[in-house]
User: Fold these one by one.
Assistant:
Number 1:
Amino acid sequence: MLFRSEAAAAQVGNQACFYHEQDRTPWRERARENLKLAEDLESALASDQFFLQYQPQVHLDTQQVYGCEALMRWTHPTLGSIPPDRFIPIAEERDLIHRVGQKALALACAQAVAWQQAGLPEILMCVNVSHTEIQHPDFENSVRSALEASGLSPRLLELEVTESVFATDLGQSEANLEKIQRLGVRLAIDDFGTGYSSLAQLSQLSFNRLKIDKSFVHDLASGGDQSVILGILLIAEALGKTVVAEGVETDVEAQILRAMGCNVVQGYLYARPESPDNFQAFVETINRVSSSERRRSRVRVTVGTHAFDQAGTVSHAVSAYQAAHSDVGVVHQVHRNLKCRSLFKAGDLDLAVISSVPGIDEDLVPVRAWE
Ligand code: G
Ligand code: G
Ligand code: MN
């Protein structure tokens, strides 16, 4: 819709000058560029102007690379780098999204196999698919041909769909999603919590992972509200799904997520989306470092607390301790339990963090110091 109105504005030669929020490019110029992009999209698909960058997902228990997200890029010969937020809507408008999707799937599957041949361990390859793409009658075929052409095992491919899939005709999408899952391909719900899905729809659709949106991760470390993430983790657990958090930028965010039970994270803390070579170098480095880390002394701390909002306090303490003691690796896990004191006494907990909340029937016990 935006594209249509921008194009219309360019055609009528509207004298008003609007600015795009982010880059302050005048709207008329942007509309003209969008028309050019739309005209050039088809030929660009036939050339090598589209390519993928890869961003790692790291498992916090092992500090090894668990998977990666493939992100499409377009370098236009005269307009330069065009972000997907801009060309995906144009591709949808021009009915070319299916071809963009085919390209992404083919490149990603081939890359996953190339890394295996270069000696990397198996890494889950996650590819974004838009809801219009899923509705295409040939959707299953393009997934199948990408797998067949590359030889990638279907269980190493995960498709990320946003909740907007629920906003449209779920019938056709659901049928197609079922078909690709029958191939053995995994399914993740992207940007979870920002869209339209009802819990009823969520429990009907068969999928494997929930991807926690970066907006919820952002203010974790600044003492922001953790209840949304906690809610998502509980929903995932109740539905028997795994989770991955995206947009993790700091160590404290990673520690808090881990303490809350989210073990796979993606974000600038580890790496930005990178070229295949840089990604490979990243995997080789992090896997080497984490195997040498496994050799240093390791402490596992089990913490109990009445309320999950204490998980942040505990994670801050662990990070501070780690900063001062680089020779020790601390792994901590926070359990929420109203009977912390008894568990602590029974030796099931190494530490109990007990807040004086009215109504909790335990006596106050002092919080034990880390050392
Ligand atoms: O990395 P980046 O900021 O450029 O990604 C912006 C958005 O573009 C993300 O929401 C991502 O899901 C989407 N995107 C990136 N690559 C693809 C792709 O290959 N297909 C689709 N449908 N969306 C993509
Ligand atoms: O919508 P989707 O989840 O597919 O989008 C992924 C987007 O998130 C990409 O644009 C990617 O570049 C961006 N991204 C990945 N890690 C981080 C991060 O740590 N911080 C921020 N701000 N963006 C990130
Ligand atoms: Mn995504």
Note: Confidence is low (pLDDT under 50) at residues 1-19, 360-371.
Number 2:
Amino acid sequence: MKLLFISTSVGAFGSGVGGGVELTIQNLAQYLLHRGHRVHLVAPSGSLSPYIPIVALPGALHSFAQNSDRGDPIQFPSDSVVAAMLQYAYAMQDRYDLIVNFAYDWLPFYLTSFFTTPLIHFVSMGSVSDALDHIIVQTGRQFPRRLGMYTHVQAHSFGDPQLEVEILGSGIDLDRYVYVESPADFYVWIGRIAPEKGLEDVAAVSAQLGIEVQIFGKMQEEAYWQECNALYPQAKLHYQGFFPTEELQARIGRARALIMTPKWVEAFGNVAIEALACGVPVISYARGGPVEIIRHNETGYLVEPDNIEALAEAIGRIDRIRRSKCRAQAEKEYSLEALGERFLAWFQGIINGAGGSKL
Ligand code: HBI
């Protein structure tokens, strides 16, 4: 297959600003290239990749869609990099079998019907604004099967039960994660230190049970971090910092469990499959992506959201989970190959003619 990927518009590819979706593009392209497919990535200037051929275009980056208010009208810069990327894709479309958009922006969705080479979309977040919800749902209705997402719960967040979406999950390079059989006596929490991640609940349960919780992730909101510790002075939260994969997995592998306390609907939750890959069970609120990742009582526990008592009770039962099952689930469902084959099946279906316009 000859594939053109359109990158996220919030930052140069490889800068990490695009977060989870950069990881998805990186892992997927790595697998497809390895399988002999051609993948080109059109992305903002300054984008870099060790092995994906990149067409880097000048143009203004977009602001984060999740930072606008739900009712805001669509706005984008006059010299938008998204416009530049779509213009390039349109001009070059005959060279490709398929064009896959990874940008969470209005324009690519709107232009779906203008392309002759099928343009399909991997939607990298749940619902964040009415205007984007509208164009995403409209595109999905007119072109069934042309929307791909991480999870069912993410698809449901757009409010249209009839929306036909390819659910693709996620995947990581398991060779980079070392399985640890016997844990030490600490827990881990991984994520941006920000209110939507619910760190105050981890502080509460640490104070209540007297357990040490090592905290990994970008210190996005220092004031929030201070507030969580001030609320629960007895909590034993030890901030470790933000680490690249090699270092992160080496530090979390010996944890007794990963605790996740999301306050928003995570589209997926890559940290959960990173933990499973190390044999670390996951205890999470039954909210968002983790609901479709954790096998309750097998590879971790799903507890009633925002219920500290339930969280504490699950932590008390953590030794019942067999760590080898955690690694086994990661190998079965979240390897690069599993991810790549799910995407290839989606792509092949579109190339074979499914997903044409319903109008
Ligand atoms: N916002 N406007 C816009 N465009 C994107 O491509 C985008 C975004 N917000 C977040 C984001 N992409 C990615 O970081 C997440 O999907 C992971």
Note: The radius of gyration is 21 Å.
